[in-house]
Amino acid sequence: MQDLVVYQSLWGMQTCNTNVATRPHEEVFAQAAQAKFAGLCLDPGVSQIEEYLALKPFYQQYQMGCLVNVFPNTVEEMRPLLEFSKEMGAPYANVIAPVFPLTVEDAIPIIRTWLEMADDIGMPIKFETHRDCITNDMFMTLQLLDAIPELRLTADLSHYCLNREMSAPITAQNQAWIQQLLERSDSFQGRISSHEQIQLPLHFPQTQKWIGIFKDWWKRGFRSWRTRAGDNETLIFLCELGPPEYAFTDANNEELSDRFEEAIRIRSWVQAIWQELEAEL
Questions:
Q1: Contact, 238 vs 187, CB < 8 A?
Q2: Domain 3-280 belongs to what topology?
């Protein structure tokens, strides 16, 4: 039977407010476990590998799964990050690579090298739809999907909604492009953006139209995944609400919403969408 599991981001539970002390990792793991998230996601570059390896006992203590977003700055840096992901027991490595080929033709050999590396190590990889990395541009990503049939995505559509300045309601053309991305997306990440802001507080009245747009995209994506996936496969959704300057703050650098409560709210939305599809399918 197909299943949905929802993870929380370790980065999303941190604060960048200099007025607030950084919480101990054990406290963060305990809070996420008590809230019944399936696990926590790490965001290493090569220089953070040893730091994050030290968290392995917390995953074991709290019986939580580990997701990994990897940030290789060069082609060669991918290998140790994939080895780290395998060591942590991640189901796949989600690639956010600040490597910037200017053309599709230049990007293809880089991505194929990484795919071959992943096969060699035995760690599946997906490429996130993310700004400031190799998939920065939606149009280039769509062309890469055509050029590399085995390329699979993690859909965080907040980046493309902002990057392409998609106005509401979403145009038919933008919807068609989004659908192409969803049909190649095998995992999802969640925050609500707009055409001008990357992360909107969920309780603002002006956010509600964007919430409706993202719920619709998630439902379309889940439906597409369910038609492609095997009977016993699991779909992973990551709540990833970043600290400031992702999060809105006031003049005193105080956040305008509770991101952990919002992560729980997003989880409830995607679980409800999953149940709707259960009834539909």
A1: yes
A2: TIM Barrel (3.20.20)
